[in-house]
Structure formats: structure tokens, C-alpha cells
């Protein structure tokens, strides 16, 4: 039974009332009240049970509120279907799993004006290291804010298999306003892992405007600029979402903070500042420092696992040409005078 259904909610409350009236009637009929000489407190006896009933009904209400749409596996399968040539999905009783290599099919990096010199490298989000979305999301009594939590790891996964991190970077600054994001709302972490930090609204063009563009790690869908029924977005709550008319919760991507999830409306498990389960990252090379004045101007996929990133400093073009060569990643750092420096790292993925 879908306990989240409004009709069922009503049925449960009605059965509670009927049960209670019956019980009260039996007690009265049996003359228990009289024999106990409690006539004077008759009023109290009516009031007290009313209070008991009210508590019961609010308990039922809470119970309903903390339950969720039933298993969402069909909607999840449909949501990720547009990218089935790039990602693999599977499920068990508890989770829907998404396997991807962490590289989207759109261009990346261009537009970044605050760059930590990390570049997109394929990641091993497969097997036991796949992304996991709960199939039976449960509403939380205490939604946790993304303003001061979840600075580590992802909070959602886009339907193209790319993770979405907190819109605030690990210093608590808005990554978009800080110039850290590309034209698609993404950039790379210290493990050269590409991820979005705002809603990937570009995906709406591929999946359709009334379809989810991502799923939160609490199990609820994130839609873009349209409601599931095609109408324009209704007012959003503090979590950046709301219930649809079937009383199922969803979030929306927005162009201003919090961009994706304001507070986790669903129950989540955490390990420190990170939601679990989620994939572990295995860096291929040591992380680098911010490169002052760099503006990323181009990014090309040159071949299978071969890339070229172009950036300017004071208008001078520099390049990072890199790719997989056997089991090693070869990085050529080419400065504006044409001088090249090479680094080689063993691939972990
Ligand atoms: Zn909505």
C-alpha cells in the first residue's frame, strides 16, 4: 500500500475515528462509567479521549509524512534512459545504481576564470563504486541544510551520470559567483573528477523540459525549469522543492542559490560531511594549486582518452595536452612560448 497517498491517509484517519467511537460506546454501554461513579467527570472523559484521538491522528499524519512515494525504480529507469549509450543502470531492493566514467558528452571547462589546474579524467564509477539512489525515499523530520553541510562529495547525480556537488565550495563560497564553473555548471575536483555544482539545465534540451535532470542522493528527483505536468514552476520551499499533486516531493534547478538542493528533504546517511553510500575517488596525480589569472578558453577531445585544454594568462595561450598512453597518463604542459614540460602518472582507473 502506498501510505503516501492522500486517499489512504483519509481512510486511515476515518478508521481510527470509527474504532474509537465504537470503543467508547462499548465502555459506556457496559455501565463501567456508572459503576465506577465517574459521572461527575463525564465531561473529562469526553475531553480526554478527544485529546487521545487528536494525538493518534497527528501520529498517523506524521507517519504518513515520513513515508514516501513507493519504489521509484520505473521512474528512475526512464529518467536515465536518454543516456543509456553512455551509462549503465541496475537495481536491487534498496538502490538504483548508475555506472559512468564521469565524462559528459558536452564540452567542459570553457568559461572557468578561477582554476585549480585540475582537468577532467575518466573515473571508475562502476561495480561497487557506482552511484546509488535510494529506491524508497523517506521524508525527513529534520531536513539538513546544504548551506553548512555536505561540503565533501556529491549531493545528487545528473541523469547523464555526472555527480552534482554542493553549490558552495569547500571554503563555503558560491562556486558559480567565484568564477570556478564552466558554461555547463561544472569543474574538476582534486581527483580530476568532473562534477556540476549547479543544476545542469542544459540537459533539459536532451531529456525534455518536464523530465528530471538529476536525482538527489536522498532519492527525490530534481526537475529543471518546468513542472512534471509541463506547467511553469510553482513556488519553491526552503529545500528548493515542493510536493506535486500526487504528494510526491521533488526539487527544481534554479538560476540562483541554492541552484539545486537547499535542504535534504529526504532521510540520508552520512559519514562525517559526506552523504553515503557514494563512490570513492582514486586520484591519478597529486592535486595542484590555483593558477592566478588563468582563463580557460577551449577544451578539445582529440581522440579516445586524449584531451587538450587551452587557457590564457594575460592573453597568452597555454595548453595542457593529456591522455591515456597504455596504463599511464601523459601530461604535456605547453606554455605560450611553446616550451613543453611532461609528467607521467600511472592510471588508477
Ligand atoms: Zn515542481
Please tell me about this protein's structure:
The chain has 349 residues and is of the alpha+beta class. The protein folds into three domains: 6-65, no CATH class; 73-276, no CATH class; 295-346. It is built from five helices and 20 strands. It has helices at residues 6-29, 32-35, 42-65, 73-80, 204-207; strands at residues 88-91, 95-99, 131-134, 139-145, 154-158, 163-165, 186-188, 194-196, 212-216, 221-223, 241-243, 249-252, 263-266, 269-271, 274-276, 295-303, 306-313, 316-325, 328-334, 340-346. The chain has a six-stranded mixed β-sheet with strand order 6-5-9-10-12-11, with no helix packed on it. A hairpin with a 2-residue loop joins strand 16 and strand 17. Helix 1 packs antiparallel against helix 3. The longest helix is centred in the first third of the chain and has 24 residues, at 6-29. The radius of gyration is 27 Å and the shape is globular. Zinc ion is lined by residues 223, 227, 233-234, 242, 250, 252.
Task: Give a concise summary.
With 349 residues, the protein is of the alpha+beta class.
Amino acid at each position: 500500500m502506498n501510505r503516501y497517498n492522500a486517499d489512504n491517509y483519509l481512510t486511515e484517519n476515518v478508521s481510527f475515528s470509527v474504532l474509537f467511537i465504537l470503543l467508547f460506546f462499548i465502555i459506556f454501554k457496559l455501565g463501567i462509567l456508572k459503576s465506577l461513579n465517574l459521572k461527575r467527570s463525564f465531561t473529562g472523559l469526553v475531553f480526554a479521549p478527544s485529546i487521545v484521538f487528536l494525538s493518534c491522528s497527528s501520529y498517523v499524519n506524521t507517519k504518513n509524512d515520513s513515508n514516501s512515494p513507493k519504489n521509484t525504480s520505473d521512474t528512475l529507469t526512464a529518467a536515465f534512459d536518454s543516456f543509456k549509450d553512455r551509462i549503465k543502470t541496475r537495481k536491487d531492493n534498496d538502490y538504483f545504481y548508475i555506472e559512468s566514467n564521469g565524462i559528459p558528452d558536452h564540452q567542459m571547462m570553457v568559461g572557468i576564470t578561477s582554476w585549480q589546474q585540475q582537468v577532467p579524467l575518466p573515473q571508475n564509477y562502476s561495480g561497487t563504486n557506482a552511484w546509488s539512489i535510494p529506491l524508497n525515499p523517506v521524508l525527513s523530520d529534520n531536513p539538513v541544510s546544504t548551506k553548512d553541510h555536505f561540503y565533501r562529495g556529491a549531493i545528487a547525480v545528473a541523469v547523464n551520470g555526472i555527480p552534482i556537488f554542493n553549490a558552495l565550495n569547500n571554503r563555503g563560497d558560491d562556486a558559480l559567483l567565484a568564477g570556478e564553473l564552466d558554461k555547463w555548471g561544472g569543474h574538476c575536483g582534486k581527483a580530476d573528477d568532473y562534477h556540476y555544482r549547479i543544476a545542469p539545465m542544459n540537459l533539459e534540451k536532451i531529456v525534455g523540459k518536464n523530465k528530471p535532470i538529476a536525482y538527489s542522493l536522498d532519492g527525490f528527483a530534481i526537475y529543471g525549469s518546468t513542472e512534471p505536468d509541463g506547467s511553469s514552476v510553482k513556488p519553491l520551499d526552503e529545500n528548493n522543492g515542493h510536493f506535486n499533486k500526487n504528494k510526491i516531493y521533488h526539487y527544481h534547478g534554479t538560476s540562483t542559490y541554492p541552484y539545486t538542493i537547499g535542504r535534504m528533504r529526504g532521510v540520508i546517511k552520512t559519514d562525517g560531511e559526506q552523504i553515503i553510500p557514494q563512490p570513492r575517488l582514486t586520484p591519478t596525480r597529486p592535486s595542484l594549486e590555483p593558477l592566478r589569472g588563468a582563463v580557460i578558453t577551449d577544451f578539445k577531445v582529440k581522440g579516445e582518452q586524449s584531451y587538450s585544454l587551452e587557457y590564457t594568462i594575460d592573453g597568452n595561450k597555454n595548453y595542457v595536452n593529456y591522455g591515456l598512453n597504455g596504463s599511464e597518463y601523459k601530461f604535456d604542459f605547453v606554455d605560450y612560448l611553446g616550451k613543453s614540460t611532461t609528467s607521467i602518472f600511472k592510471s588508477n582507473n
